[in-house]
Design a protein that fits this description.
The protein is of the alpha+beta class. It contains two helices and nine strands. A four-stranded antiparallel β-sheet has the order 4-1-8-9. Strands 2-3-5 form a three-stranded antiparallel β-sheet, with helices on one face. The protein has a two-stranded antiparallel sheet with strand order 6-7. A hairpin with a 5-residue loop joins β2 and β3. It is globular and about 35 Å long.
Length: 100
Amino acid sequence: MKLFILFIVVFLNSSFACDNQEAQVIMNVVSVETDSLTYCRAVVSDDSISSFNVYGVCPLSKVDVVDLGVDFPLINGHDCEVPEVISGVLVKKNQKIILD
């Protein structure tokens, strides 16, 4: 019984301590959004995601990826370069999702 209570306490503490949420993905980019000054974002759909494996401790939601898109840095201050296929680990921190 003590072991069960300890497990619950550890599980609850770890689930609330997530600064980053992560998932390993393979997905096609549907479109790109940018204003050429402040952001560059890849837009994906549920159908364009071919593989989505969440990190067990701090999982990233597929719904968040579809809703928020994947942010990429602007190149040369204003160019938005996004690959056609995103493959790797996505990390969500501060309401932004980036490719790690």
